[in-house]
What we know:
This protein has helices at 3-14, 19-32, 38-45, 58-61, 75-86, 93-106, 110-121, 130-141, 145-155, 158-167, 170-174, 195-202, 241-248, 273-280, 311-321, 336-348, 426-438, 495-505, and strands at residues 188-191, 206-211, 215-222, 225-230, 254-263, 291-301, 304-305, 330-333, 353-358, 368-375, 379-390, 399-408, 413-420, 440-443, 447-450, 455-460, 462-465, 473-476, 479-484. By secondary structure, the chain is an alpha+beta fold. The chain is globular.
Amino acid sequence: MLLADLAATSAEVAATRSRLAKVTALxxxxxxxxxxxxxxxxxYLSGSxxxxxxxxxWRSAWTSVDPAAEPRLTVVEVDAAFEAMAGLSGxxxxxxxxxxxxxLMGRATEVEQRWLAGLITGxxxxxxxxxxxxxxxxxxxxLPAAEVRRAVMLAGDVGVVAHAALCGGADAVAGIGxxxxxxxxxxxxxSAKVVADAMASLGGVVAVEAKxxxxxxxxxxxxxxxxxxxRSLDDITARLPEVVAAVAALPVRSAILDGEALALGDDxxxxxxxxxxxxSMSVDDRxxxxxxxxxxxxxxxxxxxxxxxxxxxxxxxxxxIVPAELRVARTVTDDAAVAEEFAAGVLAEGHEGxxxxxxxxxxxxxxxxxxxxxxxxxxxxDLVVLAVEWGSGRRRGWLSNIHLGARDPATGGYVMLxxxxxxMTDEMLAWQTARFLELEDHRDDWTVYLRPEQVVEIAFDGxxxxxxxxxxxxxxxxxxxRYRDDKPAAEADTIEAVRALAPAAG
Length: 506
């Protein structure tokens, strides 16, 4: 199959808002794929490479190599090229990787170059999210939906299941089970604004657990072999030896544990999230805080698979093997006032919020279902847009990533707190492109700098210390709520008001 065929399918999917039409187009592409192409096609049309790490950076992806005149590049050739890039390491690897990428891009047409760049950077954004691809696989294979979905959850990879379903059939899909050492997609939580709403949606007696400000970990132990995976299923075992040691000390032969890891201060309170994130991204732990694991679920224990058992049973089995100091704090109640009090205590200890859980629910791997509901404070600020960057991929031609500033009364200027392109609809992108070009002061190749006049209401999950920005703090998980045409820049929030949130925001 030619890469051009996938680029055309992606364009077809992006051009429609109909989920049914997207599924039909994707199912057609899967059906046309040869056995050796199925896994690649499923991954590429889900918007990702099969290789988790290729070493190709965001800027490198947007090549200046002259394109080919005609499409001749196959998906198998593209996958082999990225596999070669992923295998490079050591002295000279960057130069060699650049040469590999240039050679690949030189064999691609202009359309294919743009699509490959979006694939590398994760910006294909054609609307073929994972759930749509799974529906397409169900249609292409003709297999029962429940069996395909469960296999994807347990394999952690839709491409692997696509190959099994389309090349091996029902027996191959049924053979995909829970395996210690192979990461499964984690269960996710829905959201509620307040504890009372979460209690009402679940009903009855629920578990109320602390939501820690750490990184999600899934730890697999098979005898002396222990592996630690992230929420995105990356293997970070070598980076967290203290987590490995903690699990090695547990009285168990085999287990799959779900939890969080975070850096704690001497007072037992969580350190700022960026310290946890930095510690989890490098094998070099010199001068960095230790990471402590806290577990809240167990999916397998010795010879028992626990996925389908109710949470109350899994929690009891977890308590049998994990000491209280390594379990996430929880209470069980049907009283909203008790849940509110517990949540207040969690926040006072510096954590993010709480997760309320249905005690009768199984572990729904890979799903954001209704049996787990998270509640955490949402902070908002009215900030000023200082600059905006041109978009790429699907957003090419639109002004997208906005630079956010707080007002500084002491200088009469603005202090930058971060950037975001989250929360923007197509209509908003079109509006802000026209609006920001009206406010343009000057520009460079990538960024349009603005007169500081437009106020935007931003939601964010917290603040973190920052040496990058002059105010010393940066927003975490910022997203646009709305533009405030009713408010002048002179009434935007000040840097002092932002800093005052820092202790509570973490």
